[in-house]
Specification:
- By secondary structure, the protein is of the alpha+beta class.
- The protein has helices at residues 17-29, 39-53; strands spanning 7-11, 63-67.
- It has a domain at 21-64.
- It is globular.
């Protein structure tokens, strides 16, 4: 954030590559012009979607948004 980025999605602990890839694809898919969500809403929706495919909270609960949520 010191480099000037307005926000970051970070993981609080190590998460499997497969569940992280699925979550990030869903997150960025939620940030389209056709579906105008804030970053916070997009991350929440991605986590809810990921939780269906990866029911263990260790695979999705680690992700959080730092900085600007919109």
């Amino acid at each position: 954030m010191g480099a000037g980025v307005p926000s970051l999605v970070v993981s609080l602990w190590p998460v499997s590559d497969q569940s992280t890839a699925a979550l990030m694809q869903s997150f960025y898919g939620n940030l389209t012009l056709a579906q105008p969500l804030t970053k916070a809403q997009a991350l929440r929706q991605a986590i809810l979607t990921n939780a269906r495919s990866y029911p263990s909270p260790g695979d999705w609960a680690a992700f959080t948004l730092l900085g600007e949520a919109d």
